[in-house]
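[Q] Does anyone have a clean structure-token version of this?
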Amino acid sequence: MIAIQENLIHPKSIGPALAPTSPWRSGRWVFGAVWLFFMVYPAIGIVTSDGAIVEKVFGMAMISAFAVIYLLLCVYSMFVGEAEEKLSPATRTAAVAILVALMVASMPLLKTSAFAMAPFVMAAIAFAAPWKGRYALIGIVTIIAAAVAVPEFFGWELDSGFLIVMIIVGITMLFSRVMRDAQRDRETVVERQRALNAQLAVVAERERVARDVHDILGHSLTVITVKSELAGRLVDLDPGRAKTEIDEVTALAREALAEVRSTVGNLRTPDLTNTIAAAESALAAAGITADLPHADGYASTIYEGPHATLFAWVLREATTNVVRHSGATRCEVTISTDAITISDDGRGSPVLTYGNGLRGLAERVEAEGGRLTVSSDATGTTVAARFDDR
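[A] Here you go.
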């Protein structure tokens, strides 16, 4: 996976989104380049052929172009995830077609040795071509069949050992393609289930808020309605009693207003204890194992400390990112009097940018004299807010 370099999120240094690591710097190209060693065999075939110098130069040029295109496919398409795919389906199809064309064009000079490029073409068909698995099967079977039919048609010598190698490579490529597609299908199902669980968690939270508001206002408004009607009937009959009822209605209205403000305030300004409980519920709903601090046996001064509200904001934003973007299976939260750290074992993701809530969070932490750091790579993501003792 593309790693996100560790950055100190600081309002004075906030800039563009975090840049993913270059695939060339990540060493991905080495995995593709190492197999190009076997291109030595067609190169030797060209050098030792009876062709003219011009034909040999042209043949070496074709082999070089073949190697370059194959390597680019390795870096930008064959060994990346769907989220990192840089080449369009049309570009990948064209690249595979060029590889096939170069292999065919080298046959007049190399004859049977041209099929030394076939395993690379089969790998490209299996992993880079944007076709469904059955079309990849057709392509690979066609290449293997051509390795038998073409030498037979032109009367070239057929190397049965190399043919066996091609069949083994083809079967391996197809098996790997099937496994990769199955894995991606499983990941898609998991992601959809995770998104559904997150939505259900939001719905459940909305229902809880609705119940709280109903419980707060339902009784009060009912009593206010009854007393208002009574006061209206008593205005002429018993003005003193009516005034008492109106005073009670006013008190009830103020009490209900205060309770509503308190409820809304709790939604806007999170309480650390409640936020921990909400985070645990959201993570569980998303299928993520949560390792969170609990009130039992935990220092109450942390929950009531000077940074408790800020830590609640950090925890809320970080766990939201974990649920929505990380693909993690585990999330660990540690809290002390001067620091909070949220770590997950998911994948590093380009969505962890300053525009997705972290910019405002960084400014909020900075305003209280702390600093927010985010580090993310293939092993997971860590968000931390710290305050230096002075």
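[Q] Thanks! Anything notable?
[A] Residues 1-21 have pLDDT under 50 and may be disordered.
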